[in-house]
Design a protein that fits this description.
2 domains
Amino acid sequence: MTVTRLIARPMLASMFVVGAVNALRNTEAMAAKAAPVTDKVVPAARRAAPQVPIPTDPVTQVRINAAAQILGAAALASGKAPRAGALVLAATLVPTTAAGHRFWEESDPDAKANQKIHFFKNVSMFGGLLLAGVDTDGKPGMAWRARRAAKDVRREARHVGRSARREAKLAKAQLT
């Protein structure tokens, strides 16, 4: 087992579990903070994907985001689907950061500094999640496997073609 699997992934996932539990315990307060962002994002998302049912209620959106964070964190920490979990967490981090850490709207210098630290902490975590999302843990990734499979198929097709031509020549020779 690698250090990444044993320590780093659960450490990275832990913040999302804590944040999701906090969001579920304080849904109304989180929804009030999320509303300015969701009011702008939901109409754009509905235009981009009209067939996808997107809830407009910020409370429901906070709950969905929290559930996604718990599932993503579990997938990442357990190692069952670490890349998918990391990418789900990265996706949830964007609206969470946009709603929760709008430092540019703060007038109090201390609050602004605090929100700025949290904003850039989340930006850093986003980068870490993207890295975790592409980390193959020493195993070949899907792109490599697909290229390898295509190469194997081409090689096998050439072999079958040569065998078929050889058999055709032998059959022709026996007929003459």
